[in-house]
Recover the amino acids of this structure.
């Protein structure tokens, strides 16, 4: 089995300083927070095969399934007497490390860290067991400097990190335009400036960058600063869908506690159903959860457009993850990976069938 080239060994050039590489779909730093939070459980609630399940996710809108499901008690309802313990992360690598160490059992995470974690462990660490969100990524630019897509050539465009999901997508888009950029340095017909999302708005205001290919809510934060949306990445994908957040599980935990994993998946499916049936309420719940985790809610001018661009769904969109891996290989950031076995959708399909929903496809990458 081919292993991913260790992207963490590459240097990331930020606007103000060299930053550690964070292979994440939408990272805002590198530290994990053990919330120590356990949802209250009824005294007579029946436990499943584990006393507790430790789940991890990011305090981001693209992880709203986890935010809302925990906040509304929808996961706990399915788990009965098995308690939920939550941890939040600001970067994919730290969440993968926590999964490998047993600090969490199940996590919401972007495609790039899932691919990297799976290949670096030679297929032994994790499985993707479900989908959570699609979309929520945009190219936003300074309208005074960039009026058309052709104007992007010669400009300075930020992505979150070298080799992360958005960085790979932007490099692939650049190649499709017939332009040349050295993937590792970011130099060429376009200057790709790797910038942590939390400082991208300041970089834009200072003029250090002319635009950014970034996830929500960073894209909407830039628009609030005067940037203009030039391209929604969803327009580049079949059916305008591509994976931005998956659900992963430790293979050890999956083997030992399939009933717990199934309960979490059932909670996820019911949470997504509730989100889609009650989008305004769900948006408010997600923002309340963000405020509790970060100390600050998103203003309506950022929250509303960001929320609209994200689709919450159960399908992991496996074919798009495979395509994203191919884009990373084409850019020279990843050795060709063997992703066979990265998915195990057995329990998800069981839950979906019980809910009267269609089963989902693993694109030939399922575990045997």
């Amino acid at each position: 089995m081919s292993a991913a080239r260790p992207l963490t060994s590459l240097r990331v050039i930020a606007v103000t300083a060299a930053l550690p590489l964070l292979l994440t779909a939408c990272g805002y730093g590198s530290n994990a927070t053990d919330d120590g939070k356990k949802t209250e459980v009824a005294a007579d609630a029946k436990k499943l095969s584990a006393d507790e399940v430790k789940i991890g996710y990011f305090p981001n809108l693209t992880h709203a399934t986890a935010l809302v499901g925990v906040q509304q008690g929808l996961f706990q309802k399915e788990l009965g007497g098995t308690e939920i313990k939550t941890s939040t992360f600001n970067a994919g690598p730290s969440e993968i490390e926590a999964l490998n160490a047993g600090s969490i059992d199940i996590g919401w995470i972007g495609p790039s860290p899932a691919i990297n974690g799976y290949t670096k462990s030679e297929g032994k660490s994790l499985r993707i067991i479900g989908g959570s969100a699609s979309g929520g990524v945009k190219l936003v630019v300074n309208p005074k400097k960039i009026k058309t897509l052709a104007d992007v050539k010669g400009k300075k465009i930020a992505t979150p990190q070298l080799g992360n999901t958005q960085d790979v997508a932007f490099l692939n888009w650049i190649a499709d335009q017939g332009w040349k950029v050295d993937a590792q340095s970011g130099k060429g017909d376009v200057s790709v400036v790797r910038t942590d999302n939390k400082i991208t708005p300041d970089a834009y205001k200072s003029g250090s960058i002319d635009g950014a290919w970034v996830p929500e809510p960073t894209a909407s934060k830039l628009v609030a600063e005067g940037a203009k949306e030039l391209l929604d990445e969803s327009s580049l994908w079949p059916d305008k869908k591509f994976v931005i957040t998956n659900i992963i599980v430790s293979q050890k935990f999956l083997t030992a506690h399939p009933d717990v994993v199934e309960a979490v998946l059932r909670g996820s499916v019911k949470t997504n159903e509730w989100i889609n049936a009650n989008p305004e309420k769900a948006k408010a719940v997600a923002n309340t959860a963000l405020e509790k985790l970060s100390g600050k809610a998103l203003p309506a001018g950022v929250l509303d457009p960001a929320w609209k661009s994200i689709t919450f769904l159960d399908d992991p969109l496996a074919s798009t993850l495979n395509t994203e891996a191919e884009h990373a290989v084409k850019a020279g950031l990843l050795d060709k990976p063997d992703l066979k076995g990265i998915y195990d959708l057995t329990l998800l399909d069981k839950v979906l069938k019980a809910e009267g929903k269609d089963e989902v496809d693993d694109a030939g990458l399922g575990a045997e």
Summary: DSSP finds 13 helices and 14 strands in the chain. The radius of gyration is 20 Å. The CA atoms of residues 15 and 208 lie 7 Å apart. The first strand starts at residue 12 and ends at 13.
